[in-house]
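Summary for the lay section of the report: proteins are chains of building blocks that fold into shapes. Here we show the chain for ABC transporter permease and then a coded description of the shape we predicted for it.
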Amino acid sequence: MKKFKFLVKYGLKKRVGRKAFLIANIVIALLMIIIVNIPAIISFFGGDDDLVENINIHVVNETQETNLVSDLSQLFNQPFEGYEFYVLSDLAVNQFDVEAFWVNSEVDITFHFTGDIESPDVKIYSKYPEMNPALMGQIELQIINYQIGDYTGPSFETIYAPDYEDPNQEMFISSITSLLVLPMFILITMATQFVGVDIIEEKSTKAIETVIASVPAKIHFLSKITASILFVIIQGLLIFTYGAIASLIGGVAAASPGLNLPTGGESLLAYLAEMMPNWPIIILFSLMFMLLGTLFYLVLAALFASMAVTQEDYQQFQSPLMLILVGGFYIGIFAPMAGGMGFLKVMAFIPIFTPIVAPIAFASGVLSIWESIIALLGLAVFLVLSLYMVAPVYKVAILSYDQTKFFSRIKGYFKKAFTKSKKV
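The coded shape description reads as follows.
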């Protein structure tokens, strides 16, 4: 046990105490601050780029109130003190063409009033859907101003453009992928590189022979995995700290009167907390997927490192692992953006992609809680099987300096490992 603790402590200190670790964390901290505060940054630098001078509104009035258009125009433009920001004009029913409206760049919004003025039905055709709530409130206020005795609130129906895509949903998906996929990919990649490079350094310098002479191969294998997991925990806590600092910076910047940030420039974390009320359970599942997934990838990295002889050799051997990681990374980022939710759900149940893809699928609502638990159990079973398969091979390969071809070497090590197991 003392030797195991020594190996874990030595391996962890060797990685955390390096300048490369410090430099990498400075870069990660800066990236986290930028990513978390993207909305505020965009608002600060791009607030006036798309300034709208006027909103042209057509009103199709089928109610008995003849002054509706002029009354709405006066109410809408009341805050602008003489400037007519909302330009309202009357439009006959037979002149309104829905298809022509969407391609007409000179008209932004069309209101279609039907029924009685006491309780009108209002269809809103808008190229600026974000304005709809405010305009609905103004319309309702105008109906109240008529002081109708038998007043009933207007019924609104919003008609979206055929190619309309909800910007909030797009931002939500983009934010989820940025804050879940990117940190997980960075952590898992750093951990696999940690264990792989550590093993290959010992093996390429022949130091592994001295180590294995004093401790069993199984202890050596487990110490490398444990040190890597501790490294991931330390790095994960640091990333969480960077995120908290970034959110704090965003909050201070938004509250500072000197900066005068535009409205809507809140931090990305505040936006996500609003969009995802169940964020604690999402984080819990993400951490569990990441823990089991990192263990699985570390087992594979240790296996490939034990089979390699030199650093160049290891680069070739780790290619399949890196392809799996990059594949999961791109699936997690691009599948939600492309609307491939069915594909995302299928990939979430494939164990080699589950650690990265499943948290995104769960946060996006593609996976239910029970489906996420099933995916988690599947990953756990796959991890146990991989440990059972890899441990005997590691014992054989760690002291071997065979330099045959890639697939021949893998086949040979597996054959030797399980032949010995059967004899024992």
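Put simply, here is one thing we learned. The domain at 55-159 is CATH 3.40.190 (D-Maltodextrin-Binding Protein; domain 2).
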